Amino acid sequence: MTATKAPSEPMRQPAVRRPGDRIFAGSAKASGIFILLVLAGVAAFLIGEAIPALTAPAEEIPGGEGLAAYIGPLVLGTLLGAVLALLVATPLAVGIALYVTYYAPRRIAAAMGYVIDLLAAIPSVVYGFWGLAVLAPALRPFHSWAADTLGFIPFFAGPASTTGRTMFTVGLVLAVMILPIISAISREVFTQAPALHREAALALGATRWEMIRMAVLPYGKSGVIAGAMLGLGRALGETMAVAIVLSGGAGATLTLISNSNPSTIASNIALRFPEATGIDVNTLIASGLVLFVITLGVNMLARWVVNRRADFSGAN
Amino acid sequence: MAKRIEVSDLNIYYGDFRAVEGVNISIEPRSITALIGPSGCGKSTFLRSLNRMHEVLPGARVEGKVVMDGQDLYGADVDPVDVRRQIGMVFQRPNPFPTMSIYDNVIAGNRLNNKKMKKSEADDLVEKSLRGANLWNEVKDRLDRPGSGLSGGQQQRLCIARAIAVEPDVLLMDEPCSALDPISTLAIEDLMTELKEQFTIVIVTHNMQQAARVSESTGFFNLNGVGQPGRLIEFNPTEKIFSNPDEKATEDYISGRFG
Amino acid sequence: MSTPTRIAPEAPARPAGPVRAQRRLPRFAPLGLFLAGVALGFALSALSGFSIPTAVVYGVLLGTLAVYVASRAVEGRRKATDRLVTSLVTTAFGIAMVPLLSLVWTVLDNGLPRFDAAFFTNSMYRVVGEGGGAYHAILGTLVITALATAISVPIGLMTAIYLVEYASGRLKKSITFFVDVMTGIPSIVAGLFAFALFTLLFGGGVRLGVMGAVALSVLMIPVVVRSCEEVLKLVPNELREASYALGVPKWRTVVKVVLPTAIAGLGTGITLAVARVVGETAPLLVTVGLITGTNLNPFDGRMATLPVFAFYQLTQPGTATQAFLDRAWTAALVLIILVMALNVVARLISRFFAPKTGR
Q1: Residue among A1, A16, A18 minimizing CB distance to B77
Q2: Closest residue, chain B, to A19 (C-alpha)
Q3: Which residues cross the membrane (chain A) (predicted)?
Q4: Of C256, C280, C24, C338, whose CA–CA distance to C144 is shortest?
């Protein structure tokens, strides 16, 4: 209803709008635009504060070998932990989602879904406490066993950590943390699987599993992928749990079970930022910028998958 | 109170689509004018253009003139909000505000516009409007109860009470009985005949018997085909429309030989 | 695996009839077999030096195997596969329960010893060993979270109103998309953003409570927008039309009809958004820091907050290590209670403020 008076449309009304309407609509629109500005601001300010680190001579960067040498291992560590979490969490989350939607007794299914959602409500710092106090000691035997028997695989190269505070433990903690995200989205798409297809499958004499394989999984596939990517985004950026659990060294190694794991970008920032000064601050912000770009890419990809699916699902 | 509406050469568009074209009609005060026609023929769109309600949809606009007692409703400086205060509307499905009591629903038009009223004035207005809508005796003991607790027919009369509480000149009704049972329908029809003493009433209905029962004049809308604009085929006194219509299409429609 | 379309299983000797009786395991047989397998697993574990984890792993594996083999023998392959999958997804759910229960138990076990009055009334001012509490941190968390809410709710709610009531076209699409993207910003990055912003404004090394509130807002705004948007969309269009038809301007319709109708959902959504940020640690770590005394002015220097307090008590214990660890766990317990309480409040809001039908 914008009042553009084109000569070809002589009767188009110049819509009369009251001052109240104009102010209210204007401030609503301003809020929306403000959010876009904030997002742009996040990028701009991070870049602004990272520039000194980008232009500084290599010797001044912590480690003395330049920015890429400093951030590179951190990126590796971030990816290692997040991907491990994703590999563990996705099958579990799909299983949970199937259980809650198609296997659990109807009366308690909603409550069970709620219990899983509670996992998402627990603050990440508490997960860190739990990982440090319970999971790391519990996994110590596994670490030494893995180093002994699976040591030929680069991921399980020894020497095994004696504390259990390794990337492997971190990956499992992260897996628990992203479990509710993936399973919530999977649950949603599984319940939306067309009842017609499900009933058709059952009417053909399919067992419950065959029905799920024929009618539910194909329909929910892209939703599960999108959920997994959102979970990956969360795992990449998770800070406190990693900062508390991981006792990492420097070096860029692939091993998950020794003390020579690289740290992750986020936990490195959390641990060093409070005491950092001068160019160190800029270096850490530059690493944060890298993290921002990675998660932004993953999330945009996930949203794209979700939206594409919404266009084709025929919902609404 | 109760004004005449003159419509001349009215075209209604949604974006580039012409939904209704070339309507000329004169709606008499203190009478009921019924609009009939098959689904999608533009009669509801036309009704909503009379109080500029169709503008709620983005891209909707009109060409032509709608004049109410000398005032052009689509004049350059006319605020659609003011038009709607003079021309009230009752919808197909009863839609009382779920967060408000029966009492608050009736004076919603005043309250929502922040009009200051004394308690006694508000009480009087509520009673007068509910009596006007034949609902007072049924709800006078539970005015503080939610409006959504009433039956469908009562809710629709509550909506009528709400519409007449802002004291409009014209009342538009968009299939007001299509969601109601026969007994509630009868109650609404009785109410309409009472209300026409004070208001100009325009009603869209699918029910030809209803049009025949309550209205003085009837307009028949039709369209030539899917994707074509709707047009006013015939506008005549109700008696003539139902006994001896001028147009063949009208006769086909009212005798059920349509489509 | 057989193709799912092959309906007729083995056992060809059966008489042909309209409904052929399937050979089935008796109703309680699967459960019985499973339990038998579990018992065997426990026994096996006991042979190799009993431990609960190995017992459970052996038990579940053997139980599942027992059910599968029995079903395969009696009911055929398709049914056996079905039972196997049933075991698998149930186990998946069970596995997810383990960390939840373990976590809650650990936090209760370690947190309860210092869950006393002193913890809620004392700060850490001049406390180096035992005693002390998180009074300052709890109040700091409340102040900063309240400030973040005060920033996020107006912006988030107005944006949701814009998206539902006004927006169309490209701007609507891009706001929706970027709000979605914004929900994925890592919390530490939000903290860095606030730090960079205030460094530009006030020079390096600045630490303020309001910086934390800004960082939390970056995380909270998209959540508020999404939940409010969903709720506003649920308000029936008929109510808006009813209001317009009474000659009510659009903005009054939104404020006085749409928002009151949606108030329950809005309250729930906003409370859940608060619950999401109240436990955030990383952004506060880099923007607000920590002090031992009580500072309730978010515009004047460092403040204590509960999550950061918990983190430092755990990772930087002083000489009396156990006292620090106890306080850390109690802080974690209080944090969980706070988040759970907000979740419960959110549910209560949606129950009590929902529009009454009156029947």
Answers
A1: A16
A2: B79
A3: 32-54, 74-102, 114-136, 167-186, 239-257, 284-306
A4: C280
